[in-house]
Specification:
Length: about 140
């Protein structure tokens, strides 16, 4: 069975996720609909590597820098889950203009992202519906 993944960091994000028992939807500056994002990228969604704030500056990190600073986790959801919306469906439901959609796609492609691999769920997802994987060196390990 194939999966899609919600990628995040171990240090900052995992404790509140575990405490809530769900992946909770959040809003994005470009799409105001609260969503839980997933990617079909087989290893790590490039756009999930977030910049880091240091001394009032926002610094872009390479994947390995992000991994070493924060640790990497991902939640695996079956790719055939009926709750998943494609990137295009999300854009249509959010009323995102074609021009804005293309700008976001171009920016993501510069970072190695592929919008064809993006999916979202517009609701909280119980952790029981997914498996949790933690990156150990460069191999994903499923944890219970």
């Amino acid at each position: 069975m194939s999966h899609v993944y919600h990628c995040s960091n171990l240090v900052q994000k995992l404790p509140p996720i575990l405490n809530s028992g769900h992946l909770l939807p959040h809003t994005d500056s470009n799409i105001e609909t609260p969503l839980v994002w997933f990617s079909a990228h087989p290893f790590w969604e490039p756009t999930a590597t977030k910049p880091c704030r240091t001394d009032n500056a926002l610094v872009s990190l390479k994947f390995w820098e992000y991994r070493d600073l924060f640790g990497c986790i991902r939640f695996a959801l079956p790719a055939d889950d009926s709750r998943l919306l494609t990137w295009r469906e999300v854009c249509q439901q959010a009323g995102l203009s074609r021009v804005d959609r293309r700008k976001l796609e171009a920016a993501a492609r510069k970072r190695g992202g592929d919008p064809k691999q993006w999916f979202a769920v517009p609701a909280a997802i119980p952790l029981a519906d997914m498996s949790l994987e933690i990156l150990s060196i460069n191999q994903w390990r499923t944890v219970s």
